[in-house]
């Protein structure tokens, strides 16, 4: 056997082995203007990767193929489709489904329901570091809809040493950490918006921030069920946050007052209201002055109570098409706990290029 495992065999000896190239069949076709018969291209009668069966032998011989290049199946080696199935198994977390049977060693994976697509980047990199196998995904942390394409996996050769697939499986370590990807469904349905700013409270300027936030939330099925315009005064903003929580909303969003002017009290008010602040500031433009925190359930709360996110939205969220808020929102609505490192990781790609027209989320932002 050659180094590659490919070998020329007599067709009658090829049963059980894997074809290394397409076998094109040409059949008698129509006639040309002069009545001459034309050969008809039938396309591939047998595809590369096909496992030759006893029934195929007479067909192949009738096509004039007395010899074939095949991969001899060796013990412990897998056909590409079998290997693709095992690779797909590494990917099929919650809300991920194989789009069908493997074809030519490739399997597509789609979303079974709406939610935020989450990828374990480190383990994905570990799997892709194994030669001869690959998993490509769409970018993680974005919202997806049922049926959306999420990932594809394939093995590179026609037959592959089972040890290579086992190496990929070890890198994924699904038993310890679960599959490489999942779609976390949206679990939050209601939000409070606290629009800060004395100019809004007094009616000097029309509130143009709240409608923007409402539209962004609506895309994820979240309704604004509580709203207040407390002005800039720290105590008033703290009180509004307390009332919003008492109203039982799933998340609290404060707009404006996030920067460094003397009357920018929102971060202080969020802290004073008792939130655990995860980050004030994010390596993203627009949106550097974002604050994200949580009100953790206390012992008296129901045992399945979730932390309630509280977000301070800087002014840019109102007038920029895409900001850090759009990067964090899908995970927030899915109740995925965000940590400081999630924001730290946004730096590379965190600069919006301000394209005209804006194609977010189909762009390098994030
Ligand atoms: N000296 C510095 N100035 C600013 C900084 C900085 O780091 N140093 N950061 C800039 C960045 S970045 C942003 S983003 C904004 C942050 O803005 P704020 O969240 O503090 O927003 P405000 O100051 O409250 O408002 C900005 C602007 O928008 C108007 N506004 C606010 N709310 C509403 C509303 N509901 N409807 C309509 N208009 C609203 C407000 O009147 C102001 O004109 O800070 C930069 N500055
Ligand atoms: O950095 Mo501000 O929070 O972009 O727009």
From TrEMBL:
MoaB/Mog domain boundaries = 192-334
Q: Which reaction does it catalyse?
A: adenylyl-molybdopterin + molybdate = Mo-molybdopterin + AMP + H(+)
Q: Which domain of life is it from?
A: Bacteria
Which GO biological-process labels does this protein carry? Mo-molybdopterin cofactor biosynthetic process
Q: Name one Pfam family in it.
A: MoCF_biosynth
UniProt pathway: Cofactor biosynthesis; molybdopterin biosynthesis
Q: List cofactor names only.
A: Mg(2+)
- The record's top EC class is transferase
Q: What is its EC number?
A: 2.10.1.1
Q: Does the keyword Transferase apply?
A: yes
The record's listing under SUPFAM superfamilies reads:
Molybdenum cofactor biosynthesis proteins
A single Gene Ontology CC annotation of this entry is:
cytosol
Q: Which residues form the signal peptide?
A: none
Keywords for this entry?
A: Magnesium, Metal-binding, Molybdenum, Molybdenum cofactor biosynthesis, Transferase
- Which GO molecular function entries does the Swiss-Prot or TrEMBL record give? metal ion binding; molybdopterin molybdotransferase activity
PANTHER family named in the record: MOLYBDOPTERIN BIOSYNTHESIS PROTEIN, MOLYBDOPTERIN MOLYBDENUMTRANSFERASE
Function of the molecule: Catalyzes the insertion of molybdate into adenylated molybdopterin with the concomitant release of AMP.
Family, per the entry? Belongs to the MoeA family.
Identification of the protein by name? Molybdopterin molybdenumtransferase
According to its UniProt entry, this protein's organism is Parafannyhessea umbonata
């Amino acid at each position: 056997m050659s180094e590659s495992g490919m070998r020329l065999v007599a067709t009658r000896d090829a049963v059980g082995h894997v074809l290394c190239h397409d076998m094109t069949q040409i059949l008698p076709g129509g006639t040309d203007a002069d009545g001459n018969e034309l050969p008809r291209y039938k396309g591939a009668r047998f595809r590369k990767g096909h496992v030759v069966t006893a029934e195929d032998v007479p067909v192949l011989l009738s096509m004039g193929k007395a010899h074939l290049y095949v991969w001899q199946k060796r013990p412990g080696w897998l056909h590409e489709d079998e290997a693709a199935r095992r690779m797909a198994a590494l990917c099929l977390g919650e809300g991920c489904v194989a789009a069908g049977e493997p074809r030519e060693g490739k399997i597509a994976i789609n979303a079974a329901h709406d939610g935020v697509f989450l990828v374990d980047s480190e383990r994905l990199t570990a799997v892709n570091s194994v030669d001869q196998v690959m998993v490509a995904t769409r970018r993680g942390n974005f919202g997806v809809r049922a049926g959306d394409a999420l990932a594809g996996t394939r093995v590179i050769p026609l037959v592959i040493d089972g040890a290579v697939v086992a190496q990929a499986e070890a890198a994924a370590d699904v038993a310890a950490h679960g599959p490489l990807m999942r779609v976390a469904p949206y679990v939050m349905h209601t939000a409070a918006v606290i629009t800060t700013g004395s100019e809004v409270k007094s009616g000097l300027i029309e509130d143009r921030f709240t409608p923007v936030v409402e539209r962004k939330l609506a895309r994820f099925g979240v309704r604004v069920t509580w709203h207040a315009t407390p002005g800039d005064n720290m105590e008033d903003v703290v009180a509004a946050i307390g009332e919003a929580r008492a109203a039982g909303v799933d998340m609290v969003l404060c707009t404006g007052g996030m920067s460094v002017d003397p009357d920018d009290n929102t971060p202080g008010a969020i802290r004073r209201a008792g939130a655990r602040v995860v980050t004030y500031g994010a390596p993203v433009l627009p949106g550097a002055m974002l604050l994200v925190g949580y009100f953790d359930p206390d012992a008296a709360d129901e045992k399945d109570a979730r932390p309630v996110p509280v977000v301070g939205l800087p002014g840019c969220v109102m007038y920029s098409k895409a900001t850090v808020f759009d990067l964090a929102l899908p995970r927030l609505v899915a109740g995925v706990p965000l940590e400081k490192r999630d924001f730290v990781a946004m730096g590379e790609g965190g600069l919006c290029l301000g394209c005209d027209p804006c194609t977010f989320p189909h762009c390098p932002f994030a």
